Amino acid sequence: MDSVTTLxxxxxPKLVGRMAGGEPSWRRALAGAVRNVGELCEILGxxxxxxxxxxxxxxxPGEFPLLVPREFVARMRSGDPxxxxxxQVLPTGAELQSTSxxxxxxxxxxxxxxxxxxxxxxxxxxxxxxxxxxAVHCRYCFRRHFPYExxxxxxxxxxxxxxxxxxxxxxxxVILSGGDPLTLVDETLAALAExxxxxxxxxxxxxxxxxxxxLPQRVTSELVDWLTGTRLTPWMVVHANHANEIDGDVAxxxxxxxxxxxxxxxxxxxxxxVNDTVEAQAELNERLINLRVQPYYLHxxxxxxxxxxxAVPVERGLEIVTELRRRFPGYAVxxxxxxxxxxxxxxxxx
Length: 350
Ligand SMILES: *Cc1c(COP(=O)(O)O)cnc(C)c1O
Ligand code: SF4
Fold this sequence. Notes:
Elements: H1 13-16, H2 25-31, H3 37-44, H4 70-73, H5 86-89, H6 109-112, E1 113-115, E2 118-122, E3 125-129, H7 155-167, E4 173-177, H8 186-197, E5 204-208, H9 211-214, H10 221-228, E6 233-239, H11 248-259, E7 264-269, H12 278-290, E8 294-299, H13 314-327, E9 335-338, E10 347-348
Parallel strand pairs: 3-4, 4-5, 5-6, 6-7, 7-8, 8-9
Antiparallel strand pairs: 1-2, 2-3, 9-10
Helix pairs in contact: 8-10
This protein binds pyridoxal-5'-phosphate and iron/sulfur cluster (SF4).
């Protein structure tokens, strides 16, 4: 993954005034994120005795180091080494175990890559890897081994992908993904949205991002402007796994998008120790629907190397979802799905 400090910063002169004081606050927050296990433990008042690798015995320490913004750390419980937000970001020795069936590319992304950075796996929509950078490094991430260095970055580099989309009239929706597309600055994303809007057969622009949850100040008026500013219908899919991730600032950020007419969905990953109880899922979904965010997918963990300790048995997942269906209206229960390499869509687990 890229370091956030290498993000392209494209500032057009006319925007400099609007960005008085230089960088937007979310970029400063990213630059100042916690990257050190010792520091994280100190902030939370926990002893770093939880099994965790020293940099030296981590297989490739530079590849997927700890990264978590302080705004997200502030939502963790002090003194609790089992905090559900902490468990999502803290590297542990369990990642070093190799478990059979847990692979570098569990979902067949490599095979679906029609061009560097462009995945065309499902009918009607393509997924553009806009960047390898994220605002947080989630230890269970299925793309943690994705060869991001090879993916094109920036409008000029995306030109072949854009040409491919323009040449295929079956494509109606582009999904901006990554990494996290919202680690790119609004000027770059606005230019991409404008370029995509020129393609007549495209109807929708979807953004898959964890940033409105991790760093809610990322939901700037510029972001809302470019997302609603073309003829493409915008859809936003955020990623929260636990109700504690959604504090008042996050609620306000989600509200700013929804008030502007952007439908917002949430996807979560079922994670052992984090949200594998009926109570945790019920609390998350209750919080989301009260904020007008629809729970979209609950993902069975992708079997990515280094994440086996997060796996929850399918039977347990089904028990949880069945109980949710008893307790909630249909729109509040996410689809429980898994990604099957080569499948024509995400597969419902029933
Ligand atoms: C998950 C995914 C999508 C989106 O799937 P939806 O069911 O439309 O949300 C599209 N392309 C790829 C490669 C994906 O992994
Ligand atoms: S889950 Fe999303 S935000 Fe987290 S590391 Fe993976 S791509 Fe980045």
